[in-house]
Structure prediction request, 229 residues.
Amino acid sequence: MNFKSKRDRSMNIFRKIHVLIIVLMASGSVFGQGVKFGVFFDPTVTWWKSDVSDVMAEKARLGFDFGISADYYFAKNYAFATGISLFNTGGALKYTHPNLTLHTRDENVRIEPGTTVKYNIQYMKIPFALAFKTHRIGRLVYSANLGFDPMIRVSTRVDFNNFKKISAPKETNLFNLGWHFGAGAQYSLGGDLALIGGLSFMNTFADITQPSHDKITSNNLVLRIGILF
Prediction:
């Protein structure tokens, strides 16, 4: 049973990566030479916020975001930045109010006040941003960007009490939306190839979880590591 579950998760990840590659190829054929593409793997630090006293957000969680970026230049130093990625994130909430039911894929589970539920969420993220870039200074180009981050939930798993990595899609909303700003640099490796690095802050303002009496949002620090080609 465990082997089958791990195999199914591996196949799901493979299919998602395959979709990202197809999107990259299709985008290249549509936009042609006006676009600079990249691939990235971004470590993240996420901390959740709650707007009610009986749902307390606990310590920050590590995550990661990986995918494909595309910068469409409409002027020499200005670009419309987008892409597609799989954003793996989460948080922990301690519930202190009574009569709480957690909805897993297979059953509804009653949990006691004081229970901490850890959420592991994967989103498909498609950002839309404006990027501002300097002229090349030696091998470096500096940049800043500001934009929005629409997200579609791909999966949700929860840990609580003796339950580990239980699928619970009903516990989180299908859509999320955030905004971000950041800065970074590109280091030329010759020709069109360049290393990219940077730091950005992303804040979500749509409710992450399903219960209607609270609103859970997140702050995220994102370290960009990637390559342009």
